[in-house]
Amino acid sequence: MTAPTVTLANGEVVPSNSLQWRDECFNRWQRVVQMRAMDIHGRRALLAQVEGNEGAVARQRLEAAFRDDWGARKGDAR
User: Fold this and answer.
1) What is the pLDDT of residue 77?
2) CA nearest 32: which of 3, 78, 72?
3) Residues 47, 62: contact at Cβ < 8 Å?
4) Ranges under pLDDT 70 in the chain
């Protein structure tokens, strides 16, 4: 059975069980963890940088991941 495929941020399509996908997910998570220690101004600057370098979709994905992480750490049921 073949693994489903996913599209990396660079547009490459790879199996969902590939090392490239694992690495991209890990790097995305590291950004979320990095944002935990930032104040609102630092987070906004990072989000603007991500949007400038990687596009609006990457920014929205990071915002959503941080919001979910924040809610989970604060005990919000989402």
Assistant:
1) 54
2) 72
3) yes
4) 76-78
Per-domain residue ranges of the chain: 42-66
H helix or E strand, kind and range, residue 68: helix 56-74
**Cα(23)–Cα(52) distance, integer angstroms:** 22
Closest CA relative to residue 61, chosen from 15, 18, 7, 17: 7
Q: Could you tell me if 17 and 5 are in contact, meaning their C-beta atoms sit under 8 angstroms apart?
A: no
The type of residue at 21 is W
For residue 14, report the phi and psi dihedrals to the nearest 5 degrees.
-135, 160
Q: What DSSP character marks residue 2? A: P
| CB proximity list for 11: less than 8 A, separation 6 or greater | none
Note the pLDDT of residue 9. 87
Q: What is the pLDDT of residue 32?
A: 96
User: CA 21, CA 25: separation in Å to the nearest integer?
Assistant: 6
